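In the current project phase, we have settled on a layout for protein records. One protein thus recorded is set out beneath this paragraph:
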Amino acid sequence: MTCSLIEQVPPPAADGSSQQRSDAGFSLMEVVVALALLTFMITGIFYMGTISTGANTRSEDEAAAVALAIDEIEQLKNAGFGSAACPATQPESLGIYSRTCTIGAQYSLAGVPAEDFTVAVQWTGGGSVSLSTTLINPPSMSSGALEQFSTVAVKSWSSQ
């Protein structure tokens, strides 16, 4: 058994230099390209987060506006057919929201007295919601078992 302490030296490069070329690391160009791709991906993730936050805020504002509109419609409905009235101060200022309502003239819907209510809610930031409803006043049943009652059904809903 022979033990050799002689290190094997690779042959010189083609250009005559004795330096070795190491393929173990990354070149500067590879590092720059990798950083550019990483930056592009992180920027996209932050942009999606920003868009998502804006959409969530818009959704929260819209949900609060719909609740304010429904609240006004319920107040008009509970006032009773023919005696419902919009608030004297129009538009009502409710924090970042302003609410207006309109009541249409009474008319006959399939022989039943009816009137239309529209409640619109706007908020700072440029959004708005509008709910339209028809309130009807059906006559009492001939048996007298049911008294007159008001019925409300949402006719249309829009958001901008």
Observations:
- The radius of gyration is 37 Å.
- DSSP finds one helix and six strands in the chain.
- The chain has one domain: 28-159.
